[in-house]
Every structure is written in structure tokens, then in C-alpha cells.
Amino acid sequence: MSKGDRKNAREHRHRGKSSESLLDEPQILTALSVLPGQVILDAGCGNGYMAKAFAKHTGRKGKVYALDPDHTAIDILKTETAGTNLDAFVGDITRKTKLAAASIDLIYLSTVIHGFSELQVKGFGAEAKRLLKSGGKLAIVEIKKENTPFGPPLDIRFSPEELRQKIDLHPLWSTDIGDYCYMQLFER
Fold it and tell me: Does 13 map to a domain?
């Protein structure tokens, strides 16, 4: 992260916390119509719980990439998923990744974007556009922009409307995922 980007970064750190207990995994998988053979990127995968679920649904002919800046989480995920269709690697989705252009059917980003600076949001949008195949989807899960018993400050959360203004992809729909989160879907 550059000095200027650090200056504009939102003051929020996940500190290893996971949104796993907050989300309805079967509902997410159904809503996203995850199918065998798809290529999926779980960007900001954390402990990889959704990447593992995607890997089961995409099967041997599919591929799941799990990306996170946390070296420890990625090392653990690599060990847990060795020999599977899941490839975990350290990276930053707000910058160009090692993945080929137009190679991804679905990018999944869960409870991460609220911590991005404006510059990082732009970088993420550009990398998502670069990675997605024509007709590919971007799913962003976020904590609702309302009072909840946990989560980041309200002023750094995004409503679905705010996300649609920030992401330069065609918005499809938004739906509640669990009691405190929603998922906004976009298409390239």
C-alpha cells in the first residue's frame, strides 16, 4: 500500500475475525447458482470457508482460487486443501493479481470492501473487470448499513445503492443473506 493510499485508507481491521457465523452459506450458494465446472475467485477469503464450499460445488472440472493478504491464513488453507481444485495464494484484490484476464466466472468478496480506501475500491473494480469473463458475475456481501450488534462503524459501510455507484459493472440484484448482511450481484 502506498503512502498516499495509507493516508486515505479507512480505519478498520478485521484482526482475523470471520463472517462465517453471520451468513447463510446454502442461501449464498443457491442465490449464486454455483455449478460444476465454474472458475471462482474468493477474494479476501480469510479462513477459506466459502472457497471450500465453492470447491465442493464446482467439482473436479471446476477451479476455485482463494486470495487473501494474510500469509498465515493462506498457509493453513493450502495445507487443508492440498490435492483439491482449490488454489490458495497471498494477494491483494485491489491490485493486479497473478490470474489471467477474462478467466473467472464468479468473484466473491465478503465483508471486506468497507475497509477499502477510495483508491482501493477503484483498484478492486478495475481488477474485477479485468478478471471476469464476459457475462461473469461479481458478488459482494456486506454488513447492512444500519445499527447492528457488531461490525464496522456505519460511516464506512456501503448500502447496496452506494455499491452500485462505486462498481463499474452492471448491477443485477441485491438480497438479504442472514440477519445482518446483504449480497449485491453485478455482471460484466
Answer: no
Domain that holds residue 103: 19-148+158-187
pLDDT digits (tens, 9 = 90+) for 35-72: 999 999 999 999 999 999 999 999 999 999 999 999 99
d(CA 67, CA 120): 16
Rounded to whole angstroms, what are the CA distances from 58 to 33, 48, 54, 136?
A: 10, 15, 6, 15
Question: How many angstroms separate the CA atoms of 77 and 68, rounded?
Answer: 10
Summarised one tens digit per residue, pLDDT across range 120-163 is 999 999 999 999 999 999 999 999 999 999 999 999 999 999 99
Q: At what angle do helices 25-32 and 49-58 cross, to 10 degrees?
A: 50
Domain holding 77: CATH number? 3.40.50.150
Q: Residue 104 domain-assigned?
A: yes
E-assigned strand segments in the chain: 39-43, 63-68, 86-90, 104-110, 132-143, 170-177, 181-187
Q: Is 64 exposed, middle or buried (0-12, 13-18, 19+ CB in 10 A)?
A: buried
Residues 151, 155, 161: CA angle, nearest 5 degrees: 95
Give how many domains the chain has, as a whole number: 1
